[in-house]
Design brief:
- The structure is a single chain.
- This protein is of the alpha+beta class.
- The protein has a domain at 10-60.
- Helices cover 25% and strands 16% of the residues.
- It has two helices and two strands; from the N terminus they run αββα.
- It has helices at residues 10-15, 55-66; strands spanning 32-37, 41-46.
């Protein structure tokens, strides 16, 4: 086997490109996984800091989380 590309592993190895911006992952580049659902839960690889979720959806989730009382004992 003469594949000179370093295997990224997992979703990044299968995808080869960021689910958000479409740019190729560089060999050895750090990636993040993001879960989404389209009828079943799937995971996609994205560049650090990228997200497939819309900004308004992220803000709504943050508001809901801030409204949950702290359950620390």
């Amino acid at each position: 086997m003469t594949d000179e590309r370093k295997h990224l592993g997992g979703a990044a190895d299968r995808q080869r490109t960021c689910a958000t911006c479409g740019a190729e992952f560089e060999p050895g580049e750090r990636t993040e996984l993001e879960a989404f659902s389209d009828g079943e839960v799937r995971y996609v690889a994205v560049h650090p800091g990228h997200t497939t979720h819309s900004p308004s959806r992220e803000r709504a989730a943050a508001r809901r989380l801030r409204g949950i009382p702290d359950q620390a004992a």
